[in-house]
Amino acid sequence: MALEVFRSMPKRVVIAWNIMISAHARCGEVESCLRLFREMSESLYQPDQWTFSALMNACTESVELLYGCMVHGFVIKSGWSSAMEIKNSILSFYAKLECHGDAMKVFNSFGDFNQVSWNAVIDAHMKLGDAHKALLAFQQAPEKNIVSWTCMIAGYTRNGNGELALSMFIDMTRESVQLDDLVAGAVLHACSSLAILAHGKMIHNCIIHHGLDKYLYVGNGLVNMYAKCGDIEASGFAFHDILQKDLVSWNSMLFAYGLHGRASEALCLYREMVASGVQPDEVTFTGLLMTCSHLGLIDEGFAFFQSMSSEFGLSHEMDHVACMVDMLGRGGYVEEARSLAKKYSKTSRARTNSCEILLGACYTHGDLGNGSSVGEHLKNLEPQKDIGYVLLSNLYCSSGQWKEAEIVRKAMVDEGVKKVPGSSWIEIRNEVTAFVSGNNSYPFMADISVILYFLELEMRHTWPVNLDIE
């Protein structure tokens, strides 16, 4: 409708072109934006800073480097490269696409900073993985708004610093900053990454208090948070509380059921989703195939894998192939898994991913023949990654091939590859305790060792074991 009105205008002014380009940019239609821009130029209308800012934002959302560089070239040629709005958009673009050098060149060209500039700089540092510089920029900013806090919270979470994200959220509430749905979603994601249910419930209460629980983005975050924190019932309640569910809502609940081994609920939810007219996407099938893989539903998994292309016209991506290889490998169909991986793994990364899964399956089922060749291939694909050496060495050890295992371990040392230590954590009374393999400096380590000793006895023998160690 908007495009029809625009086309019917007897004389189009620059602001009308900008409105249409911005509208297409918000919808992620970068090629439509560029077509409009070309038509605007051919009609002899001069673009301004708002035109180029909208174009750069469209390129940022599309994650198309070529388009963004092309628009950046137009900006320089037109003489608008010093405009603050355009600089902010260009900085966000290069940061989003992780072009560190280009992002820093744009950053160093800044003269004066406005509020949007400071937020763009904070976000850029976070996207480049430098949380310390982002914090310095946040502290130096003369004024902070909700976007500044959201950039910090989302950035900490994205860089694996969930505790700092929660701490930043607490600081924000102490500053009496008014919450919105975006910062609520960001802090819920932090709780999901930490998998601490008590923190998630605390944030949920805060969200209800501020009347944000009915926002779609927040509702989807609640579904994911409760699932990741182990409360599948609360995840289901959060899902049913969403009044206008979108595809993300359905996918989040599908993953939640799969994560908790609820195969029948996941399959029923998928059928309900399709019946309601929601078209599944690649993420939907990743969740379904993951569920089938973990629960050994091979026939159902193959049916979903085939229906992706035949029924919905979707292509098989790396994650789908990985789930299928994992599903067949878990079921003991190692040859079939290897054949499927060879057929569908087109990129180097996909081949590496499939080989890792195959090698794990070979170790589980004691398949030395396939395992040795897959392991050698994996070492050649990624000689600096520890998983190929470790799995292959373990496979040789379990098969009694001690000499071959020693050769693999020596090759690992010669390459300078170190095994990443295993880790786990547990939440008790709202406190998380993490354990790392090889580190015995925990409090009560002696008591833990005694309990583990008695548990091992109980697992190995059928007679009752007295666990009263006091």
UniProtKB/TrEMBL annotation:
One GO MF term on file is: RNA binding
Q: Name one Pfam family in it.
A: PPR_2
For the keyword Repeat, the answer is: yes
**Residue windows of the PPR repeats:** 13-47, 145-179, 246-280
Q: Which GO terms describe its biological process?
A: plant organ development; RNA modification
Q: What keywords would UniProt list here?
A: Repeat
InterPro entries, sorted: E_motif, PPR_At4g14850-like_plant, PPR_rpt, TPR-like_helical_dom_sf
Q: What's the protein called, per UniProt?
A: Pentatricopeptide repeat-containing protein
Q: Which species expresses this protein natively?
A: Lupinus luteus (European yellow lupine)
